[in-house]
Amino acid sequence: MKRVVLDTNVTISALFWKGYPRVVYDLIHEKRLAMLLSSEMERKFIRVLGYPKFDLLAGQISPFMKSLRSYAEFVEIHSNISEIIADSTDNIFLECAIDGKADYIISGDKHLLELRSYAGVPIVKSKDFLLREKFIV
């Protein structure tokens, strides 16, 4: 089973809209993919879900996080990566991928996508991942 790290953009897109990020998330629910998650990533998701554009109350964020946790494999972070300078918070996804031995980072973030890969871990958009792994044709 492929081990994947989803960035905030992909995870939130999967929760709120249809499309390729949702297909990836559905594969996680079906236990056809293993989703890796760190506490740092979880804190970032909670912070972003609190943005006014999502119009969620604090109590409404909890069910999203509970669902996410129920399907994720938690990774204890030991790495301290500072590869991405333009938005240093994106390094948490690289750390999770390395420490969790991910096969892919699935991202919609330009800073991550610009790397194309990190330490042998490909960084791809949702659609590209689904095509590479033949979940769609």
- For CATH, the homologous superfamily is named as 5'-nuclease
Q: Give me the CATH architecture, please.
A: 3-Layer(aba) Sandwich
CATH class: Alpha Beta
**How many domains in all?**
1
Quote the beta fraction.
15-25%
Major sheet: arrangement of strands:
3-2-1-4-6-5
Number of helices: 7
CATH topology: Rossmann fold
Q: What key attributes describe this structure?
A:
Rossmann fold; 137 residues; six-stranded mixed β-sheet; alpha/beta
Concise account of the structure shown:
The mean pLDDT is 94.
How would you sum up this structure, described in words?
There is one protein chain. With 137 residues, this protein is α/β, with parallel strands linked by helices. The chain has a six-stranded mixed sheet, sandwiched between helices. The mean pLDDT is 94. The protein has one domain (2-132): 3-Layer(aba) Sandwich (Rossmann fold). The chain is built from seven helices and six strands. Helix 1 packs across helix 2 (20-29).
Layout of SSEs?
Layout lengths: L1 E5 L1 H9 L3 H10 L3 E5 L1 H11 L8 H14 E3 L16 H9 L4 E3 L3 H6 L1 E2 L2 E4 L1 H7 L5
Parallel strand pairs: 1-2, 1-4, 2-3, 4-6
Antiparallel strand pairs: 5-6
Helix pairs in contact: 1-2
